[in-house]
Amino acid sequence: MEKIRVAIIGIGNCASSLIQGIYYYKDKKPEEAIGLMHWEIGGYKPSDIEVVAAFDIDARKVGMDVTEAIYAPPNCTTVFCPDINPSGVKVEMGCVLDGVAPHMAEYPDNHTFVISKESEKSKEDIVKILQDTGAEILLNYLPVGSEKAARFYAECALDAGCAYINCMPVFIVSDPEWSARFEEKGIPMIGDDIKAQIGATITHRTLANLFRERGVKLERTYQLNTGGNTDFLNMLNRSRLDSKKESKTEAVQSVLGERMDDDNIHIGPSDYVPWQKDNKLCFLRMEGKTFGDVPMNIELRLSVEDSPNSAGCVIDAIRCGKLALERGIGGYLTSISAYTMKHPPEQFTDDVAVEMVDEFIDGERER
Ligand SMILES: NC(=O)c1ccc[n+]([C@@H]2O[C@H](COP(=O)([O-])OP(=O)(O)OC[C@H]3O[C@@H](n4cnc5c(N)ncnc54)[C@H](O)[C@@H]3O)[C@@H](O)[C@H]2O)c1
């Protein structure tokens, strides 16, 4: 199989888990590979993905081989694949824009971003690197609230002719104007805001769907999340949070038969607890009414390592992006976006989305 050539923006915890996974599954056989939703997609295995370019702005990552930068601070996710040979791909300095929130400067270096003194790249520089390295897919892992930076790199993808996978909640793939531009150029896109394999969103959606299917009226719910990685530190700045809250809340609202009143649904990142590192805790409560208007409730506590959990979805999104490139499909991919993203252009329940993805992989569905 030829390789899937990927460029990554933001070599944080999510990129670390993804890259570790590409190497981790290399020597595995399908029957012993734990943690994948698909071993092969269109003939592509996880190890057929190759990172050919990488961009960051952190002094401890820029200039390093990407296979070393993934372990550099402030990354703190579990190391499940410690021995990776250097790939020869250096992390390039990107363009900071609004990627680093002002409050990040108030925290110790080992917990926060440290901006490199290297000069920032222009759009032309980045497009050239993408073209010179033959990158086919650009993966966006910027911090929440990087509205300008996310759009800047999406412009780079458009100019370089790269497919765009948007793993964070700046609404680009789900924005009709942006998706029309990608469709016009015949470039596929998948987004926005990656879901986890089994995380707070899919658990909450599944339970909400269960309430609906079993005729139980969901009256009030909350989902409070805490974590100790830079994603949670960044999200302490409430002004950066609007799109994350919208993305997470709509993911649940969209599977309810009847929308809940905004006052009765509260979902979002709730606090930063440094010692939790990349372990995310979700505290979920759902209050409903069953037969005869009789009240019931569910309390659930979920504990997951955040970044490998997202990589389990991205590893499929990348391979579906490659299939779309081979098939000449431009614009957003409905099925894999609905399956792997919290805020896709079109929402479906997860059991419908998984069928749509399998149809897409088998070539029975265009997108
Ligand atoms: N972990 C999950 O399960 C999960 C789920 C859904 C969405 N996400 C989203 O994915 C994104 C990445 O998450 P993460 O945990 O890897 O975050 P992270 O904080 O570990 O990594 C972000 C990286 O981006 C770099 N960066 C900042 N500004 C930049 C710029 N202008 N150009 C290039 N690089 C820049 C930082 O130096 C850092 O290396 C976040 O927006 C997060 O909300 C994560």
Automatic annotation (TrEMBL):
GO terms for biological process: inositol biosynthetic process; phospholipid biosynthetic process. GO terms for molecular function: inositol-3-phosphate synthase activity. Its EC number is 5.5.1.4. Pfam families: Inos-1-P_synth. Gene3D superfamilies: Dihydrodipicolinate Reductase, domain 2, NAD(P)-binding Rossmann-like Domain. The keyword Isomerase applies. The keyword Nucleotide-binding does not apply. Belongs to the myo-inositol 1-phosphate synthase family. This is Inositol-3-phosphate synthase.
